[in-house]
Amino acid sequence: MGFVAARWGHANLANLEEWALGGRRFGTIVSWFLLGGDIYTAYTFIAVPALMYGVGALGFFAVPIGTLVYPIVMVVMARFYGVARRRGYVTGADFVRDRFGDRALEVAIALTGVVALMPYIALQMVGMKAVLVELGGVFGAVGGLPALTIAFALVAGYTYTSGLRGPALIAFVKDTLIYVTVIAAIVVIPPKLGGWQHIFAVTERTFATRAAPASIYLTKPQYFTFATRALGSALALFLYPNLITGVLSASGKNVIRRNAALLPVYGLLLGFLALLGYCAIAGGIVTRDTSRVVPQLFARFFPDWFTGVADAAVVIGALVPASIMAISAANLFASNVYCEFSSQRPLLETRIAKFFALGMCGFGLLVIFVMPVAYAIDFQLLGGCLILQTFPTFVLGLWTRWFYPKALLAGWICGIAASAAMAYSSHFSPDYTIVLFGSKLTGFIALYGLTLNCAVATATTLILRALKTNRGLDATAAADYA
To answer: Domain range holding 71?
Structure first.
């Protein structure tokens, strides 16, 4: 299907807009499947139940993200879409270039997106690897690496050939299989374990015996952690270049608004899926590799033929977002880094993007070959911290040009440096403890970095305004935001 998608619409895929954005012609249904397939990835369906299995209620923070993020999408991304459609933007960094007229800021935002996506692509491999290892045989040989190599060679091939049309078409299969699998799991597994009341009771008793802190309810010290993780993740989610690519492929602003209303259905699905982590505890599944919890649960309670369907859903759930991520990273590199410094931009842009997309797929595979899974997961933390530091430039820039571009660049540098330092000192835990007015607050690192980022950008802007420094040219017009 990925390769056949190259013929969808008989488009000229040598054109970057056709290859990277599907010609901006996706309607509500296609966009719903595409964005859903891009947001709720294989790693989501593996990691959230695994986190619930490991730490309990704190892992449920992934569910309210869907409540928080879609009102943001309704307002922010609909506004961005209007400007991007009028001015022909392919990436968010294109908007930054025109809005602030600063080449350094444009390149910084573009490179942030590329680097943040690298671990995200690698983590799709984690979900696939967990399934392949659990399947065993030829799939699990040598830790699943040969099978992973074949899978990502296919991803790279159809991404290069079909562009965004490939994952858009496959997303119909992926999302259908995911829905069938999760609904079947919720219907079949809990009754076999004695019902939800029994599952919760067994989980609570099991957590009470663990050495590591875990609870079926949030403890008071976890309230702030839970809230900052949910809010920080919601603010960061649609800043990822792959989601911006999905938004820009829509055929109109109303498609974005409709999807902001319809996509929370996936959040309901994720809520049920998260509880499978408790089902695994009640079912007596014991494993040190928590990423294998869901595949083991399926293998234990489903017949072999349906276990194959469920495992296929997870694997395809990795192929779709990995392809979109590779395309969006390639867009940024080609449009805002390489071709900004090339006099042959129209001739090279699509070609460079295609080859860079292949490189991104290869990088994701290389990470799994040379790095233990735990370190890949830790690396993902920095991806979220990095991408949230683009919030003042991209989101606030849609409404105001009060900030000076050099001030935004200074804030970006401080936010990233602080986030990296906190991540390193906390051994790549997603949370960092600060002491405020004598109280200890453990919260999401990315939000701390964003707070510092905004403070530095504000202070530097005030200084530059006082010095009457030239703020550069704004190439956008008020009519673009109407």
So the answer is: 4-371
